Amino acid sequence: MTYTIPQIVVIIIAMVLTFILSSRKFKSTELSMALAGVTAVFFTAYSGWTDEPIRILVEGLFTNMDLAMTFIFATLFIQIYSHSGAMTAVTRGIISKFNSKWAVMACMAVLMLIPGAITGAGSVSVFVMGGMTYSIVRSMGVSEKKATAFVFIFAILSAAAPPINLWTMLMTAQANMPYVGFELLLLLPILITGAFTIIYLGWGAKRRPKEEILAELPEVSEKMQGKGGMVRILLPLVALALMIVLTLVAPFQMPVLGLPLMFVICAVIALICDPNKMGFKGFYKLVDEVMEQVFPLAATVLSVGVLQNAMAASGVKGAIGTAFVLLPFVWIYALILIVAPFAQGCMSYGSAIVIGTPLIFMFNTAGMNTTVVCAAMSLMFPIGDCLPPSRITGRLTCETTNYQGSYMSFLKQVFLPCLVLGLLALLMLIKPAWFRYLI
Amino acid sequence: MTLVEAVIHYAYFVMAGIIGLFFLKGLFKREKHKGLAYDVVYAYCIIPFLLRILFIK
After folding, report:
1. Fewest 10 Å CB contacts: which of A188, A310, A404, A418?
2. Which of A31, A255, A260 sits opposite B4 (nearest CB)?
């Protein structure tokens, strides 16, 4: 079995054409990605590189199945939590406690960073804090577009933030490096980008009088006020935080629950804490609505899995990675800010393995500090979470905030903060010695 | 701990089953995303959940 470059180039062209044509015809990104994967597998089988094409496609559906389950049960938890009025109570509390616009935005930024930093997934930050952050930032006079951008930027920063950075973990595992010394290296660029984002998006926004904002928000039931209300609000979130922290600090005493089951447990707690008791019919209706609401996203991650598996089987994944890492250093520096985010858009976390690890070996042979290089690249990959074909976090943010504008207008709004993050990471990649003191 | 792990293991089968059933319902009756393209998407998205509850994969 020999993979030849012209054959792989033909497959890449066929995949791109299939994606474009089916996007136009069916207006469904999920189906277009799956069809592009089918095209790659068809050519793979036609070239005699596999005799089990259906197996490649079906196994691809399993690649991101856990992620799809996480999305579904996280949405269910948040919907049940919102049904209790807890989100409104927290929003009212923050608006009435803080008087400064900057203090509120900084507080929401820190809260957005926590879920993603602990789980390693920006989408979890959007699910847990996105809706609440959006409404609070909007009440500070920030426009719809800017508030959506705020949620997205802090979601991707949370994914890159320590202690759990999945791109770094994947690269270090493959390169036989210890996952040690990354905390400050990751945290400093995130703090700089975060501060820039708050100033850039909050500049010129005029906070309305506190009373006016509170009058527009829905009233909170009496049971959600006082000490009892505080318990109802905090218990589901504390339970979630506790389970995540325990899996990190006591891995041998804690059974492996997994994020989907954690969200199910929290949903049950939120259901018990809900003062507006739901009957079976009401609960079934809510679950049915959640399933329909979250289906396009679940379908997207499942289709991305098909695409990833098809790209691996057809040699496209390897060809792209090899072609890039064989370039001279100058070209790598010039192209990495384009290639790394787009690789993330195509291959999700696979980008760290296909492009990241070979580059670590390459920079190592040039005598550069691989810890700084690894941290720099893991700050570039999250930028691609808003790029096609998958655009998982970007799309999720737009759906959570119910953003009405075009996706391109959203991309334009997030461009500058992403560029700041990208340039900081590029500086770390070009001059790793300058950042060695942070290890 | 082994018992708890086994319970968690089966809980995931149940969770996959619940999702599969709702997707199956969505394939035939849904409010949003109507049309042939989403019929196809629903059809192939059921596959992993179906295989999981049948203990095939």
Report:
1. A404
2. A255
